[in-house]
Amino acid sequence: MRSAPYGSSSGASPWLVAVTVGFAAFMEVLDISIANVALQHIAGSLSASQDEATWVLTSYLVTNAIVLPISGWLASTIGRKRCFIACIGGFSVTSLLCGTAPSLAALIVARGLQGITGGGLQPNAQAILTDTFPPAKRGVAFALYGIAVVFAPAIGPTLGGWITDNFTWRWVFLCNVPVGIVLSILAARVLADPPELAARRRARLGAGLNLDYVGFALLVVGMGALQIVLDKGQEDDWFGSAFITRLAVISAASLVAFVVWELRRADPIVDLKLLADRNFAVGNLLMFVLGFGLLATTALLPLFVQTLLGYTATDAGLVLSPGGFALMLTMPLVGALSGKIDARLLIAFGFAGTAAALYAMTRFNGAIDYATIAWARVYQSLPLALLFIPINTAALAEMPRAKSNNASAIINMVRNLGGSFGIALATTLIARREQYHQSVLVEHVSSLDSQYNTVVHKLQQAYLAYSASAVDALQRAEAHLQDGAAASRVAVVQRLLLDNGGNSGGNGAAGAADAQAAGRCRASPSALTFIFAAL
pTM of the entire structure? Predict the structure, then answer.
């Protein structure tokens, strides 16, 4: 069958189509990151522990990971327009259920349903753009889509922190409802399936619906177990936990069986044969690396500034926002250039720039200020535009229109998997290196060490202003050193001594000695340095 010309089959402006599907994808991606900063408020409001509240995130990620790869099959079976509008409507309804959930169990179930309904938005949005714009103009169209899926995680923590601090965590979910209603109406007016896709769908349904039950079951078990392993692995000590070990074995066996089964199917639920195209296979590999680095650092920076620098959730989000705005400004420029410059050159420069930015982050320490962190995030974000657009454009350049649904589903699934692996590795390395450095520092916390005795004496003098006796001040000083093995706490002690020099009996020499000691601690390799270097 001859392919129809590119453009909107409904007669609407292609750019209106791009804006509609871009905002839908933005709403779904935003909801993943915006809920992270509200977990403490959710736990407190619903009388749950912090560990129990994390299932609000896990339930969404598990169901979303299952639906993503099969979204192409769903769109081809029921129609891409119907599938897209159903996803928007379902996402709005489940957001309402999340915002009105009376208990944690109800919220976890609603979030799982939200992951199911939202899983089809990203791949269908990209497939619609691929079929609407000719290859020469896809760079600009993918720039709009890139703003949605890359800018959303950057702005999510800021927006979520502001909503939670000024209203209630329920509005993190309820704000999706009016947006979803508007997008549903708009999508119904401007979207239409290309004639050849509609003809293929009618032919498939006329021959009888042949659902791959075995492949679907293997995918559900394999992807669901894998996502739980990645999300809960560090929390449960990875393979030291029988629960995680069993899930890892189940996931590996199910996914291997799934691949073998799908490659032998004539009408697979996930068309893995598309990976035989070299451009598409390499594009998926590069997209995995992009998701790995982007989401790992997006998770690390807020953790760093909140845990070690004492930032609030809103302030931590503001660290990421400048990078998001920089990316939003550069995406259209790169989109325009992608049709004029070899994609391989853009990708090479993008990865080189990202590596340089991550290496610069290895110099972060406990005395760093907001501007330095924010600018470092900007420098890291700028090269991402050189990666996202050219990778997508090159991967889908030779893809037949009939395969665009399945191809978009696979490449979006791979990007999300890269992010899950990146976050899992980053949190694990943080925890392990933190334990290592604490053990090294504790080795020197001994009364036989002259430097230790000097610091304890200065701390005792500082605490005298807030203690009932010298003995109480000494106990507090020793407890502070035993518990405060992190470099940031040494910096806090330094400021305390310098600010209370008159009360503590300190002098310029003592302040200099404390500054030197704090500097030595900050100069030691940190867990954050190790991870940024690894990325």
Answer: 0.71
